[in-house]
Amino acid sequence: MGRWSNSPDEVECLKRITIADLKKLGYLQPNVHLNRSIYWNTSNGAKASSITVIIETNDTDGYITLDYTFNDSQKVNYKVKLITRPSNLGNGLLWFFVCPHTQKVCRKLHLNSGYFLHRTAFNGLYYEKQLQSKKWRDWEKVFGSYLNDKLYEELYKKHFKKFYNGKPTKKYLQLMKKINARKDINFEDWERALLM
């Protein structure tokens, strides 16, 4: 008989709702009443799951009601408070969630155990980096730029801007610096690290 996995959950693997995504979709604005859906896609682009959100706001606060089915059987419906805080740049207000469980002010809510909450509301939830072995972390310090395939994913994103007004963007220059650092890696260092 198989055993239940006792490996901890990783924050990066959980479904989440973020303030940035709500703003990008045009759902989060002052003085609105919206009833919309949010979809999560599989790696091949097919719709995997969805959630209905009802957003009610005034000038400086409001609520988002989350309505969904968890594990194909458990109906879940609850409200999460929305608040605003002044931007530290002095150009308007920033929106935040208030976690219904921890009362922490946050910009992301993660789905675990059936509810979208702040990550600290869950026991045994870790970032991917926290679960790496000491040896792997040591290798990443030495060979991190060589092992990081996400650099190319970032570089070839659909709307990534390499140039603005004929000049390379700062982000593009940073990525190219990391990619070019791969050329300077000595493979004898790799061999020594593997034998340690």
Précis, in short:
This protein has 196 residues and is an alpha+beta fold. The protein has helices spanning 19-24, 134-147, 150-155, 170-181, 187-195, and strands spanning 9-10, 16-18, 33-41, 47-57, 61-70, 74-86, 93-98, 105-106, 108-112, 115-117, 125-126, 163-164, 167-168. The longest helix is centred in the C-terminal third of the chain and has 14 residues, at 134-147.
Which structural traits does this protein have?
three-stranded antiparallel beta sheet, globular, 5 helices, 196 residues, disordered N terminus, alpha+beta
Describe the structure.
The chain has 196 residues and is an alpha+beta fold. The chain has two domains: 9-124, no CATH class; 132-195, no CATH class. 24% of the residues lie in helices and 36% in strands. The strands form four sheets. Strands 3-4-5-6-7-8 form a six-stranded antiparallel sheet, with no helix packed on it. Strands 2-9-10 form a three-stranded antiparallel sheet. A two-stranded parallel sheet has the order 1-11. Strand 4 (47-57) and strand 5 form a beta hairpin. The radius of gyration is 21 Å and the shape is globular.
Strand content: 35-45%
Please indicate the count of domains: 2
Structural Rg: 21 Å
Tell me how many strands there are. 13
Overall mean pLDDT: 82
Bin the helical content: 10-25%
The class by helix and strand makeup works out as alpha+beta
**Low-confidence parts lasting 5 or more residues at pLDDT below 50?**
1-5
Outline the biggest β-sheet: 6 strands, antiparallel
